[in-house]
């Protein structure tokens, strides 16, 4: 038996969580280093996964499969495709930065209660690692039930991270902060739990359908996809649509898609900046990832049926998120609404059902993770210095702390998809992919980019430029620890912006496969002259995609 | 003259009867779990009568633990001897079924009772009274609350060690209840386990008036439901001419007609069957605590001493669901198109009613009471499936649920202020800061109640929902997840309260328990996590045990 690499990648942070939690209360500095060590170990394992993964190879690689709960037809089945590998890498890269950025987040809670068992620092870092473990295993699971378990279970550590370790900035009384914080945590949990429970009904339904049609119920993605392709598994279209909606609802809450998004600004606003990054850059990606992996592949017909409605919701998310971001007075809530807008782009790309669209959406997941992390973490450093989240409390920071302002600007420019930075590539692909099938939607979505420029530049202008406010005059610039967090993220943004090929190479075969399961081909270009795929990669179905048989609007 | 003739003829028919009474043939070995427990209960009574007061506590705890463990070993022995599967049959002259579900449920009840006895025996939580260690039970049950006799009893350091034989009698009845194979045995078993529970409910050391009120309420409503059950039994006898399960089932299936001349007028009358069946079901649904027969649950759960509540909530539910399953699957399968719609309705209002009313509760014990109602609804969804999977999922759910419940109530006994247990939710604010471990353990139980994955609650919920969906009750599954979502709200509210609220300065403290309660809680947590992460072995066990003998 070969080394269970995927299990190890998920177990490493889980083990880290246990070890971190076990560090004695007095040694809280050691706990931070232990957590960082385990996150780096996970990163190393994720790097091995990335290296061992062969983009041209089988659909799912590094697979592991063991019987788990026979009665429910549940297997412990892991396997990664290009999309999963990219997202695992993103998660593993971001967590060490999140831990470093949150180095002092739990300190205010220390000493508040003289109790030998009270260990907030250990708890904070253990919870972050716990979330990482659960996110990684949800990216790896190819068994629907296994995925569901961790999809749901990750809510619990997330909930404690939001509710237990909130942002103390904001100039409110301690009591009001506590109320707001627990409100945000409960809202997060209830939204996601409601989504998850509806999905549970669909999961049970899926079991009933497979048990009916195949004799034994199964949750194995590969088995179900094969059975559907081979015609052994017929779902009545009404059943399929209901199941699809059950799954999609949960993912749309998680993603989050308008109108199920309202928990995100609360959660991101009240959580500390590193936890906010954890929510939007890591945990929420599970939602969009699951749309690609489960919604489209398990229910291809229903996905096509629902596409118009979902595209419209995605468009609303893009525009609505951007408009609300412009109107925000709170830096973190602004970034939250910007994220809603970006998730709109990702979902738009997924349901455009073109290779560019889905490839772009996958790249967008990675790039949005990195760019939001950069912007949010710098914003977090800024907020800790001033003790306020309100934009109006800042002004002229670039004169006092030029490095901070510069990194904030780069993070912001990445968020508005400036060419040369990573998100541009993905946003462009999403728009191209959407435009080739739904020109009108593509045009409307482009408005989102203009609005993005507005909210980012207004934010920068109001906080960083202008006369130096008295309160920010003595603001120190970025410290070494903070630079260590920000610099690599910015380097990554620039690298992926000018040379996205390595990432695209990993992602594209998986996207092609998804497209083939959904039985969709790219529409024929109006001027098929120079379009030979993108970045020298040519899809296997290249010839077929030009025959025009399935062109048109659907 | 005619009058005399009637008497005469009656007398002669009766006189002929002795020939027909067969000599009883009792399989003592197969009934050994029940016999051990009842025997130990009688030993317990003798201990009360003969031993000096100081030695009773140790002797009673010893006898109870040994008896429950021995009875459990006997159940294991029977199961290992294939009495659960290939050798399943009806013992004791057709009165008791020895089969898979019976053994599985008996095993569960015995383990639950064993853990519950640990919490009954706890004597470190209350402060010393006149230098004596005391438990959760009244010094002298017969003394009037607040009266001179009570003060004297407290001063003398009396404790009510009678609780142990009472528990054993209750357990004896519960062991018979799910394995009863005729309606009279069912009724006798019901009374055998109910009467000790009524008494146990009245024995709280603190808030005695509340406790006695709970007991009276429970007794009155319980007596009422027993009457329903008994009347239903009479009607079913009129319908079938027999009280054995298989006999009634044969008549329902139309295989037997008019064998008893005396009942020629009523036998096979569907009105009797439907009304009788409904009344028997009512009696059982009362014990389960299903809406609309749930009214007693919150008051009794709140008033009873907490260890008793935990025992009652866990073990009664197991026993009553076992009896319900047997009744519906053995006696009335031929009537399933009649009872399924009714049970659908009951399951729906139970799930939604329990979950919605729980949202407004402010007392931990009442909250858990309403949550137990909601859970009864989830289990009913599995009962309605009428597939073999339905039986095994219900068995699994019962085993999983009962340990979570026991553990949760054991934690409730730890949180105390000057007035005894601090059950009002506002007092639990900030408990997570004060005693992270206790709060974390309680959070685990709450998450299991809420059905969060990796806890036994999720595995159980999934099992019953899967069975229900397979059995064609998809709509029930949807309503089930909706009420789960509602239920999640109030479980989470308690977690919020414990971890994210500021502790009150006059808040309760967490008592340091003896190893007894600690081990009860530890067993609860262990079972919750093991059944959540690796449920396969127990699911196998439940599905092997899922066949009723007829």
Automatic annotation (TrEMBL), chain A:
Region spans: Disordered: 517-554
Assigned protein family: Belongs to the complex I subunit 4 family.
Any Pfam family hit: Proton_antipo_M
Domain (NADH:quinone oxidoreductase/Mrp antiporter transmembrane): residue spans on this chain: 141-451
Biased composition range(s): Basic and acidic residues: 518-529
Topology in the lipid bilayer: Multi-pass membrane protein
Gene Ontology molecular functions: oxidoreductase activity
InterPro entries given in the database record: NADH_Q_OxRdtase_chainM/4, NADH_UbQ_OxRdtase, ND/Mrp_TM
EC code(s) of this entry: 1.6.5.11
Cell location: Endomembrane system; Membrane
Protein name in UniProt: NADH-quinone oxidoreductase subunit M
Entry keyword set: Membrane, Oxidoreductase, Transmembrane, Transmembrane helix
Membrane-spanning segments: 31-51, 78-103, 123-151, 188-209, 242-263, 275-299, 305-327, 334-355, 361-383, 403-426, 438-460, 480-499
Major location (coarse): membrane
Automatic annotation (TrEMBL), chain B:
Family as reported in the entry's similarity comment: Belongs to the complex I subunit 2 family.
Domain NADH:quinone oxidoreductase/Mrp antiporter transmembrane as annotated: residue spans: 180-486
Catalytic reaction list: a quinone + NADH + 5 H(+)(in) = a quinol + NAD(+) + 4 H(+)(out)
Keyword Lyase set for record: no
Broadest EC class assigned to this enzyme: translocase
Recorded GO MF terms: oxidoreductase activity
Keyword Hydrolase set for record: no
Entry coiled-coil feature ranges: none
Topology of the protein relative to the lipid bilayer: Multi-pass membrane protein
Listed EC numbers: 7.1.1.-
Annotated localization: Cell membrane; Endomembrane system; Membrane
Subunit structure, interactors included: NDH-1 is composed of 14 different subunits. Subunits NuoA, H, J, K, L, M, N constitute the membrane sector of the complex.
Functional note: NDH-1 shuttles electrons from NADH, via FMN and iron-sulfur (Fe-S) centers, to quinones in the respiratory chain. The immediate electron acceptor for the enzyme in this species is believed to be a menaquinone. Couples the redox reaction to proton translocation (for every two electrons transferred, four hydrogen ions are translocated across the cytoplasmic membrane), and thus conserves the redox energy in a proton gradient.
Keywords assigned by UniProt, alphabetized: Cell membrane, Membrane, NAD, Oxidoreductase, Quinone, Translocase, Transmembrane, Transmembrane helix, Transport
Entries under Pfam families matching the protein: Proton_antipo_M
Record-given protein name: NADH-quinone oxidoreductase subunit N
Transmembrane region(s): 32-51, 58-80, 100-121, 156-177, 183-204, 216-240, 271-296, 308-329, 341-360, 367-388, 394-415, 436-455, 475-500, 520-539
NCBIfam families, per database record: NDH_I_N, PRK05777.1-4
């Amino acid at each position: 038996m070969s080394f269970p690499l995927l299990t190890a990648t998920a177990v490493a942070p889980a083990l880290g969580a246990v070890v971190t939690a076990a560090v004695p209360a007095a040694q809280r500095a050691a706990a931070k280093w232990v957590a960082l060590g385990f996150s780096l170990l996970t990163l190393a394992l994720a790097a091995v996964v990335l290296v061992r993964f062969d983009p041209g190879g089988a659909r799912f690689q590094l697979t592991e499969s063991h019987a788990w709960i026979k009665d429910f037809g549940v297997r412990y089945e892991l396997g990664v495709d290009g999309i999963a590998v990219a997202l695992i890498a993103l998660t593993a890269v971001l967590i060490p930065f999140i831990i470093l950025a949150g180095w002092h987040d739990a300190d205010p809670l220390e000493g508040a209660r003289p109790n030998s068992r009270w260990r907030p620092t250990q708890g904070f870092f253990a919870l972050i690692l716990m979330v990482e473990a659960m996110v990684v295993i949800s990216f790896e699971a190819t068994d629907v039930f296994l995925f569901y378990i961790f999809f749901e279970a990750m809510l619990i550590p997330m909930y404690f991270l939001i509710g237990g370790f909130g942002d103390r900035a904001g100039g409110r009384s301690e009591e009001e902060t506590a109320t707001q914080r627990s409100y945000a945590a409960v809202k997060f949990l209830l939204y996601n739990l409601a989504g998850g429970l509806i999905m549970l009904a669909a999961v049970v339904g899926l079991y009933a359908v497979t048990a009916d049609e195949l004799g034994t119920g199964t949750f194995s993605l590969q088995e179900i996809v094969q059975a559907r392709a081979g015609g052994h598994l017929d779902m009545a279209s009404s059943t399929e649509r209901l199941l699809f909606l059950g799954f999609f609802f949960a993912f749309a809450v998680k993603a989050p898609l308008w109108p199920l998004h309202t928990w995100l600004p609360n959660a991101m606003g009240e959580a500390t900046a590193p936890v906010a990054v954890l929510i939007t850059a890591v945990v929420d990606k599970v939602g969009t990832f699951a749309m690609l992996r489960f919604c489209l592949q398990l229910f291809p017909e229903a996905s096509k049926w629902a596409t118009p409605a979902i595209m419209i919701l995605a468009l609303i998310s893009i525009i609505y998120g951007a408009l609300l971001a412009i109107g925000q007075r709170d830096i973190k809530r602004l970034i939250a609404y910007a994220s809603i807008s970006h998730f709109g782009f990702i979902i738009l790309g997924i349901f455009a059902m073109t290779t560019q669209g889905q490839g772009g959406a996958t790249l967008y997941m990675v790039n949005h993770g990195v760019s939001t992390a950069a912007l949010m973490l710098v914003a977090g450093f800024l907020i800790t210095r001033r003790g306020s989240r309100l934009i109006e409390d800042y002004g002229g920071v670039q004169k006092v702390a030029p490095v901070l302002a510069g990194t904030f600007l780069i993070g912001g420019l990445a968020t508005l998809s400036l060419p040369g930075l990573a998100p541009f590539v993905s946003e462009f692909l999403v728009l191209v992919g959407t435009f080739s099938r739904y020109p009108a939607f593509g045009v409307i979505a482009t408005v989102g980019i203009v609005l993005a420029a507005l909210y980012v530049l207004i934010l920068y202008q109001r906080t960083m430029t202008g006369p130096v406010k008295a309160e920010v005059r003595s603001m120190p610039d970025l410290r070494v620890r903070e630079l260590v967090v920000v610099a690599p993220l910015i380097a990554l943004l620039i690298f992926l912006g000018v040379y996205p090929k390595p990432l695209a190479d990993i992602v594209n075969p998986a996207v092609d496969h998804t497209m083939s399961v959904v039985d969709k081909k790219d529409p024929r270009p109006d001027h098929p002259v120079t379009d030979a795929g993108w970045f020298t990669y040519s899809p296997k179905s290249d010839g077929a995609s030009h025959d025009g048989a399935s062109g048109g609007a659907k | 003259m005619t009058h005399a003739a009637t008497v005469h003829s009656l007398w002669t028919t009766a006189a002929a009867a002795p020939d027909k009474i067969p000599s009883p043939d009792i399989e003592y070995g197969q009934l050994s779990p029940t016999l051990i427990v009842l025997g130990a209960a009688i030993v317990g009574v003798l201990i009360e009568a003969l031993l000096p007061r100081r030695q009773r506590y140790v002797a009673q705890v010893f006898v109870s633990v040994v008896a429950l463990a021995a009875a459990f070993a006997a159940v294991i022995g029977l199961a290992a001897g294939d009495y659960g599967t290939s050798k399943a049959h009806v013992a004791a002259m057709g009165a008791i079924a020895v089969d898979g579900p019976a053994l599985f449920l008996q095993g569960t009840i015995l383990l639950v009772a064993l853990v519950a006895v640990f919490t009954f025996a706890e004597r470190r939580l209350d402060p010393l009274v006149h230098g004596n260690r005391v438990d959760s039970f009244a010094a002298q049950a017969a003394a009037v609350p607040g009266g001179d006799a009570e003060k004297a009893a407290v001063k003398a350091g009396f404790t009510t060690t009678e609780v142990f034989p009472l528990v054993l009698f209750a357990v004896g009845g519960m062991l018979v209840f799910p394995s009863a194979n005729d309606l009279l045995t069912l009724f006798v078993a019901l009374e055998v386990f109910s009467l000790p529970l009524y008494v146990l409910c009245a024995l709280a050391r603190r808030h005695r008036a509340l406790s006695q009120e709970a007991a009276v309420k429970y007794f009155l409503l319980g007596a009422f439901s027993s009457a329903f059950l008994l009347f239903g039994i009479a009607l079913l006898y009129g319908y079938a001419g027999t009280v054995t399960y298989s006999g009634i089932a044969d008549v329902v299936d139309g295989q037997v007609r008019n064998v008893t001349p005396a009942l020629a007028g009523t036998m096979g009358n569907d009105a009797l069957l439907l009304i009788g069946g409904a009344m028997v079901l009512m009696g059982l649904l009362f014990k389960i605590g299903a809406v609309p027969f749930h009214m007693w649950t919150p008051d009794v759960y709140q008033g009873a001493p907490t260890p008793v509540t935990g025992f009652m909530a866990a073990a009664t539910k197991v026993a009553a669901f076992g009896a319900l399953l047997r009744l519906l699957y053995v006696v009335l399968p031929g009537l399933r198109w009649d009872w399924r719609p009714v049970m659908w309705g009951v399951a729906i209002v139970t799930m939604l009613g329990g979950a919605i009313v729980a949202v407004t509760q402010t007392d931990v014990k009442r909250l858990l009471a309403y949550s137990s109602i909601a859970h009864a609804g989830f289990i009913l969804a599995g009962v309605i499936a009428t597939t073999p999977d339905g039986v095994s999922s219900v068995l699994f759910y019962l085993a999983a649920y009962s340990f979570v419940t026991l553990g949760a109530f054991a934690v409730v006994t730890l949180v105390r202020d000057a007035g005894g247990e601090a059950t009002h939710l506002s007092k639990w604010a900030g408990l997570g800061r004060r005693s992270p471990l206790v709060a974390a353990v309680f959070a685990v139980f709450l998450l299991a109640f809420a059905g969060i994955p990796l806890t036994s609650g999720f595995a159980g919920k999934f099992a019953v929902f899967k069975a229900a969906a397979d059995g064609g009750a998809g709509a029930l599954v949807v309503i089930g997840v909706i009420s789960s979502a509602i239920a999640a709200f109030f479980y989470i509210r308690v977690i919020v309260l414990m971890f994210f609220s500021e502790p009150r300065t006059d808040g309760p403290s967490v008592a340091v328990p003896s190893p007894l309660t600690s081990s009860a809680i530890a067993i609860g947590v262990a079972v919750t996590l093991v059944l959540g992460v690796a449920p396969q072995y127990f699911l196998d066990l439940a599905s092997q045990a899922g066949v009723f003998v007829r």
